[in-house]
Amino acid sequence: MRFRSFLLASVLFITAASASTSTHGNQVHTFATSGDQFLLDGKPFQIRSGEMHYPRIPRAYWRDRFKKAKALGLNAITTYVFWNVHEPKPGQFDFSGNSDVAEFVKEAGEEGLYVILRPGPYVCAEWEWGGYPWWLAHIPGMEVRSFTPPFMEKAERYLKELGKRLAPLQVGHGGPILMVQVENEYGSFGKDHAYMGRIRDTLREAGFDGQLYTADGASNSMLGGGTLPELPAAINFGGGAEGQFANLAKFRPNSPRMNGEFWCGWFDHWGEEHHTTSVPQQTADLTWMLDRNISFSLYMFDGGTSFGWMNGANSGGKDFEPDTTSYDYDSPVSEQGRITPKYRAFREAIAAHLPAGTELPPIPIDPPSTVVDKFELTDTASVFDQLPKPIKADKPLTMEALGQGYGFVLYRTRPAAAYSAELKLQGLQDRAQVYVNGIAAGVIERRLGQNRLTVDVPEGATLDILVENQGRINYSHALVNEHKGIAGATLAGRELIGWEMFRLPFDHPGSYRYLLGSAAHTPTLYRGTFNLREVADTNLDLRGWGHGNVWVNGHNLGRFWGIGPQRSLFLPAPWLHKGRNEVIVLDTQPTGTLSLSGVKDPIFGNGGH
Known about the structure:
Layout: H1 2-17, E1 31-34, E2 37-40, E3 43-45, E4 48-52, H2 62-72, E5 76-80, H3 83-86, H4 101-110, E6 114-118, H5 149-166, E7 177-181, H6 193-205, E8 211-216, H7 220-226, E9 233-237, H8 241-251, E10 258-263, H9 279-291, E11 295-302, E12 313-314, E13 321-322, H10 341-351, E14 372-376, E15 379-382, E16 391-393, E17 408-413, E18 419-426, E19 431-436, E20 439-445, E21 452-457, E22 463-468, E23 488-491, E24 494-495, E25 499-504, E26 515-516, E27 524-532, E28 538-541, E29 547-552, E30 555-561, E31 568-571, E32 579-587, E33 595-599
Parallel strand pairs: 4-5, 4-11, 5-6, 6-7, 7-8, 8-9, 9-10, 10-11
Antiparallel strand pairs: 1-2, 2-3, 12-13, 14-33, 15-26, 15-27, 16-25, 17-22, 17-25, 18-21, 18-23, 19-20, 19-22, 23-24, 27-32, 28-31, 28-33, 29-30, 29-32
């Protein structure tokens, strides 16, 4: 009932705030640029925006976050649009439920917020493959983010489909969309102005006839590669605003000044430390921009969660750095919607720069959270004992070639002779667990720069290699070559041939046959239930578990991994029921743990399995 009370309080808050929060209705506005300013209906307008992503926040919470944006003193919301969310299969579009981006935009407008739209087709965002649908990787001649026919054909189809739903929501048509971004930080990737020009033209053809803009880092090389001369150029950074804008002024004199992404936090990689940032320093950076009437968008205002398989990966200091499920980002509003000290500091800074007599709406209450008592997962299903029908080939096929986007593939072969030798994998993406006759022989991780392992393989033995897609790279040129699985394998220097490949997307983990059992040593699904007298947010405590995913009432909460820094998974109230709730845990490296509990606060920390 506490969650229902929270929703009722949210409705009452909207009513109480209506006197000071006017909605945009169907009023038509003009939005343009003049010199170093943006103009709304011909008058100077400072954009005070915050980024939040509709797939990362349950739909039932969108309005709560919008209200918190208004109470912070923001006048706009920025969002990417995620191609892989909307076209999961070629030509099959989905704009329903949590993917209803048009409804997200409309609700923002109803809460008195404008919207800055970033439709890509590339978005980065620490999101799986920067938003590209996985099936692009299996199209002949495909080179993403390039002016090549196979890519442009699919990108134009997507953007025009998007335009049908979102172009009518621009301010020039009575909607809340102020601006639309062309591509995304392209100057960090290349300098093909013909490609950028074609994306711009496609957006126009899709009906986006309002103000377009670009966003890049502030260096000359990034601005030179990613901007278009006739469009405003926003710059993205997390500090050093004075120098960043000085460089922009040299590159593009007499142009609107906007920090398109003010990085007020940072994201986490598995196996690294949890990131937080200095509230006083970031408040000072924000104040510097407010003092000069510079437009900005907080990245992130509310980071949310990369539910399911949707976390991305980076390729920076290491070849492969997979991102955690949590995208909390140390944002002003936390992953589970809580007001933070950073929020209060930013609110105070913004309020001090508003016109005299302006009063911000009261800060909305946080969503309630609850503890779930410890419960057992008593039913088990061995993954290796319930494999689907295999696909056979002489050489291993990539996940994409197998017609699969996410999850795992089990590669099985039977070497012709006995070996105590080095197993070497070609094209490993991303993590391989190796078994000989069902007994674990070791792990090979792309994250650690590994591609080989010494194994003992008796004559006639079965060699299994379970490969996990840990998230396609979302940044840098490395994203062009993402093909999950393995491309080949040798044992003692001899190529292994004759493979059976089992697709394991775990789309429906509840469909496995479960038995009353105990912990296993091979990848296993564990099932249990817990009961709730009141529905509220919670965080499942995964400390003690190995490596895998969790589903609650059919919702994939995301990945867990004992190496941290994330040690719990956010479980939002809208996905829970009063009474019985079903939990399924896939643990690919079982530790013997068979119980879970829910805690009010998220858990971060390194160490463990």
